[in-house]
Specification:
Layout (H helix, E strand, L loop, with lengths): L6 E5 L3 H16 L4 E5 L3 H4 L4 H4 L6 H8 L5 E5 L11 E5 L8 E5 L13 E3 L3 H9 L5 E3 L5 H9 L5 E5 H6 L8 E2 L14 E6 L3 H8 L4 H16 L8 E11 L5 E12 L6 E9 L3 H14 L2 H6 L1
Parallel strand pairs: 1-2, 1-3, 6-7, 6-8
Antiparallel strand pairs: 3-10, 4-10, 5-8, 5-9, 11-12, 12-13
Helix pairs in contact: 9-10
Length: 311
């Protein structure tokens, strides 16, 4: 037990947010600390507008404000929702073991993507998903989609859409992974940088809490997220940009035949209408995660990524 009293964890009110914050609370309790959830309503929860309209960071600003003013001690974010710029006075003290980073299709009739005929309606608002789905050239009708996961899945069950594309991790967290009809290999659809990862944040000057939370950190998960977000930052793009990235820790053999961990990173950008797409990949030391991301972004830019994203 710590002498500091109950650790207050700020969370959005959605089932997904409460579940993932609840996991962090449970991990803290498991480690012998007192912790509780404090639900905070964000502008993103109140608006049905596409995220590109209401702005990057819409889900996280209110929670960070509560952290700054001391209403809460810890914020648990979906890492992919965080702007790439670091927040003054706050520290990401832990990246817990990451969930599946892949995007998932939930289609009527249990169909996979290749079974959807041209003209099928597929709901998703993320420009990254729109662009990559269009680039596949399947003649799909991409429709805007917002709201919590329950609302999104309801559009398929209710017959309004033939399919939706969402993050598989979100469905796993709310116990609805059974509804996934296809988990997209990144070769088909590159996930959002940091998808499936959590960022556990606290005030930088709360040294005691920084070290308590550090016990929840998973180094490989942090390395993959650092690499992916480094691509995004170097492209000067935000979480609503048509940028996909996935990093994985893979085993390889060094010059002496010893098994060593390396970081494999793939990333790409696509034009919203699918008319153009650029992808690249790199493999290197895990300790160079951020540099590898920057190098990959530089290659993408050299090959015209800025122009592709503008189209
Ligand atoms: N943009 C919304 C969002 N932010 C985090 C998740 C859940 C998955 C995750 O933690 O990456 C989702 C839903 C989705 O993209 O389908």
């Amino acid at each position: 037990m710590t002498g500091r009293g109950t650790i207050r964890i700020g969370t959005r009110g959605s089932l997904l947010a409460r579940t993932q914050s609840g996991d962090v609370r449970d991990a803290l309790i498991e480690a012998g600390h007192d912790a509780e959830l404090v639900v905070i309503t964000t502008a993103g929860d109140l608006s049905a507008e596409p995220v590109e309209k209401i702005g990057v960071g819409v889900f996280t600003t209110a929670i960070r404000a509560a952290l700054h003013n001391g209403e809460i001690d810890v914020a648990v974010h979906s890492y992919k929702d965080l702007p790439t710029a670091p927040e003054e006075g706050l520290t990401i003290a832990a990246v817990p073991p990451r969930a599946d980073s892949r995007d998932a299709l939930v289609a009527a009739g249990g169909r996979v993507l290749g079974e959807l005929p041209p003209g099928s309606t597929v709901g998703t608002s993320a420009p990254r998903r729109v662009a990559q789905l269009n680039a596949l050239g399947l003649g799909l009708e991409i429709r805007p989609l917002r709201g919590n996961l329950d609302t999104r899945l309801g559009k398929v069950a209710g017959g309004e859409l033939d399919a939706v594309v969402v993050a598989r991790a979100g469905l796993v967290r709310i116990g609805r992974e059974d509804e996934v009809t296809e988990a997209f290999d990144p070769v088909v659809l590159l996930p959002a940088p940091a998808q499936g990862a959590l960022a556990v944040e606290c005030r930088s000057d709360d040294a005691e809490l920084v070290s308590i939370l550090a016990e929840l950190d998973d180094a490989p998960s942090r390395a993959t997220v650092d690499a992916e977000r480094s691509v995004l930052a170097a492209l000067e793009a935000g979480c609503t940009a048509p940028v996909g990235a996935i990093a994985e820790v893979v085993e390889s053999l060094d010059d002496d035949g010893r098994v060593v961990d390396e970081l494999s990173l793939r990333a790409g950008v696509a034009a919203l209408d699918g008319s153009d797409e650029i992808r690249a990949s790199v493999v290197g030391p895990v300790a160079r995660a951020v540099e590898l991301g920057r190098e990959l972004a530089a290659e993408l830019l050299e090959r015209g990524a800025a122009e592709v994203m503008r189209d």
